[in-house]
Amino acid sequence: MIAAWRIARRELRGGLSGFRIFLLCLSLGVGAIAAVGSVRAALETGLSRQGAVLLGGDAELRLTYRFAEPAERAWMASRAGRLSEVVDFRSMAVAGGDADAERALTQVKGVDGNWPLQGQAQFDPPLPVAQVLAGRDGLPGAAMEPLLIDRLGLAVGDRFRLGVQDFVLTAALLREPDAAGSGFGLGPRTLVATEALGQSGLLAPGTLYETSYRLTLPAGGTLDGLRAAAMAEFDGAGMRWRDSRRGAPGVERFVDRLGSFLVLVGLAGLAVGGVGVSSAVRSYLDGKTAVIATLKTLGAEGRTIFAVYFMQIGALTLLGVGAGVFLGGLAPLAVAPLLESRLPIPAEFALYPAPLAESALYGTLTALIFTLLPLARVEGVRAAALFRGIGADAAARPRGPYLAGLVLAAAALIGAATALASVPRLALGLSAGVAAALGALWLAARGLRALARRLARHPALRGRTALRLAMGAVGNPQEGAVAVVLSLGLGLTVLATVGQIDANLRRAIAAELPERAPSFFFIDIQPDQLAGFQDRLAADPGVDAVETAPSLRGIITAINGIPAREWGDHWVLRGDRGVSHAAAPPEGTVLTEGDWWPADYAGPPLLSFGAEEAGELGLAVGDRVTVNILGRDITATVANLRQVDFRSGGIGFVMILDAAALKGAPQTHIATVQADAGAEGRILRDISNAYPNITAVRVREVAQRVGEAMAALASATSLAAMATLATGFVVLIGAAAAGERARVFEAAVLKTLGATRRQVLASFALRSALMGAAAGLVAAGVAALAAWTILTQVMEMDYRFVPGSALGIVAGGVLATLAAGLVFALRPLSARPARVLRAKE
Q1: Dihedrals φ, ψ of 795, to 5°?
Q2: Where is the ABC3 transporter permease C-terminal domain (predicted)?
Q3: CA-CA distance, 335 to 331, in Å (whole number)?
Q4: How many CB atoms lie within 10 A of CB 191?
Q5: CB within 10 Å: which end of the chain, N or C, has fewer?
Q6: Over the Cα atoms of the chain, what is R_g?
Q7: Residue ranges of the alpha helices (H) in 527-620?
Q8: What is the DSSP string of 433-463?
Q9: Mean pLDDT within 602-614
Q10: Closest CA relative to residue 812, chosen from 774, 766, 772
Q11: Is 733 in a helix, a strand, or coil?
């Protein structure tokens, strides 16, 4: 090993010639992963340290459908440094008169004089909260987000209506400190004083609203102590606890999962870089033919030669990984001012060791995987074969220990990615997808070489010199078709998969959902308004169908006597869920297990549960589920399981109780309305004027907001995919540069035989286009399969092949290879045949 290190050190003194692509591929891949991980760490740190601001206090106690009783409020006030009450619900904001009124869905937040306990709200014009909400001319004040102001055509000083209460717009709401903790809203925000809502008719019994009580800790108080006391005091009251340690759990979970996904996409880019790394090592070892032959002739053993070049590649790997970690760590710091101004959540940018170490681990393992086989082949090559000009590719299959090391390294990479990802199944699935894509691309590249060799000799190509030369070149193992198709194809596969999924999601949201879904959701219909509501819609010729159901909100607190928080982290167990009741099964109900209860059933509570959700939770018929509704625990036995299709956009409840279980409970109704597009405006005006407390949710507007959110996700993923593609382009340049010397000799021979510069250039262009088209076609096919798998098996959606996206990917592959190939065709075209051929003598 001492001799091997001495030889390796002396060879490295010659510089990094031949390893620029190696270092660039490795540093790009590692840098992309380090940058994504650093941004995720910055967001997670910001969420953690700014948890009190995001939450609006050190702790929050939340209720559904009701305000805290005086005794409950007094208990909270006695244990808090300061206390603030916030109520949140959806409503319709109406501006103007009945004939020309503008209406829009808004998320209303009612606050008291202590809001916000943490952070600062920003308004335009800049005013204190108290002055904004005080109003003028005898009307209470309000602030709206600019988007809602524009939608309603309002200006500061104008009037608008919530329910039956008039407000005056006193400012635009620019920043809401606790917005991230409030979750996803269907409409822009309107901020008012809670006491001003007393006469609005929007907070009637059974109306869907949530109240949050934010507390600051008194001197000497602890969150754990306050939580224990609150859980004991409000046991069975439907109270939910949240504190500043996880001020915005939904946002935190989203950031974690999106960050993990982007890191995994970055791993695909690192795999692309690995192809370039492997090609660079092969090319380097081919250039060391004479050195290796000399060493073997002088008695060097195969393992000594392996150690020499393993040490060299190891040192260069450390250099490339170090450069990637350096770039990935500093890049977020460089763009931090820009990101901080655009991010809706706080971020604290700094150098975080964990993501940098993770990226270094991935880079090291990837380099080991893609260099082990080329290095191992050197050990078995005979000196005589090397002196005869046969390169390192002539080696036999590597020995068992090297193959075992390759398998272990691959297993370590997949294991690390799985262990460090927030969703292990996603990591495994994506790793399997990348491996399958690489396998498909490798087979396609080998098939392309074999097909090109056969076509080059086909009689149909006689007389087509440029095409025949291109086919012969593509079929030549030295041309690097495998490296080109692998590197470019994998990058295009990631980008094409994102494109196919994004196009299908947009189609489903923008086209299919409105076709299947109702035109409107109406919520907060009071029981005494239901008959009149139905009569009005029945009299409208534009209405096709109306479906109604009683609606309450409940929190699952226990399953079979086990607290829900100990049962699992399923989405049904997080927060409150819609609950309905029915004597007979709703129209279209499909039971998968169990039976429905009799229409006149009046025994112990029975429950119908969604079959898919029950399967994920491990529920079966006969199990007991405890649901807290309006502060009362109802323990019901699961009587049946049924299919619930949320994709239709209609009414769908995971939980439906028997009618007697909720008899007399304050409740409202929800309704879905199918109507002609031309009648939607008329229906909205009629219902809003007749029942100002009823909130209408237009499905088209919701679909638009969801589409905007999906577009943002697709953009983030596409950026990561573009980094993968950039790495692939670097590999292309490396392959083209490595073949430049061979092309110079080829061009000289062709010119000597009478070929024109145009024919030589056409040959070079055609071979590049053929390899690019092959990479693009395989990428489009693999992407279609990947998108079909994700959409149909994971998201349970329909999939349609989007040809426009696929054609764009194929065209991109052709253009990328043409650009890389033609840049390195200039020297071969300008070379003088005589000088080149004399040099070969």
Answers
A1: -90, -10
A2: 265-377, 721-830
A3: 7
A4: 24
A5: C
A6: 34
A7: 530-538, 564-567, 611-617
A8: HHHHHHHHHHHHHHHHHHHHHHHHT-GGGTT
A9: 93
A10: 772
A11: helix
Q: How far is CA 835 from the centre of its chain?
A: 57
C-alpha 438/C-alpha 728 separation (Å) is 13
Q: 3-class SS at 34?
A: helix
Q: What tokens does 195 get?
A: 């006491």
Q: What's the rounded Cα separation, in Å, for the pair 579 and 628?
A: 10
Kindly state the tokens that stand for 392.
């390192």
Q: Decide: 524 and 207 in contact? Cβ < 8 Å.
A: yes
16 or 576: which leads in pLDDT: 576
Exposure string of 600-636, with b = 16+ CB inside 10 Å and e = fewer, is ebeeebbbbbbbbbbeebebebebbbbbbbbbebbeb
- Token pair, residue 197, equals 């809502």
How many of the other CB atoms lie within 10 Å of CB of 716?
A: 17
* 206: its two tokens: 């059974």
Partner residues linked to 129 by β-bridges: none
For residue 649, the SS3 value is: coil
Buried b (16+ CB within 10 A) or exposed e, 451-489: ebeebbeeeebeeebbbbbbbbbbbbeebbbbbbbbbbb
Chain center to CA of 788? 17
Of 498, 466, 401, which Cα lies nearest the Cα of 721? Answer: 498
Token pair for 418: 């799985």
SS3 762: helix
Task: Give yes or no for a cis peptide into 116 (omega within 30° of 0).
Answer: yes
Share of the chain above pLDDT 90, in %: 22
Q: How far is CA 164 from the centre of its chain?
A: 42
Which one, of 449, 412, 679, lies nearest residue 545 by Cα? 679
Tell me the average pLDDT of the chain.
82
Residue 609 is which amino acid?
Answer: F
Task: Kindly tell me the burial class for residue 17, based on how many C-beta atoms sit within 10 Å of its own C-beta (0-12, 13-18, 19 or more).
Answer: exposed
Domain ranges for the chain, please list them. 1-53+251-422, 59-216, 424-517+699-841, 543-675
CA distance 619 to 593: 12
β strands within 49-133, DSSP E:
59-64, 83-95, 102-111, 122-124
Strand partners, 142: 169, 192
Highest-pLDDT range among 137-151, 445-459, 658-672, 743-757: 137-151
Q: Would you give the DSSP letter of residue 206?
A: T
| 693 φ/ψ angles, rounded to the nearest 5 degrees | -80, -20
Residue-wise pLDDT for 10-68, tens only, equals 877 766 666 777 888 888 889 888 888 888 888 888 877 777 777 888 888 988 878 88
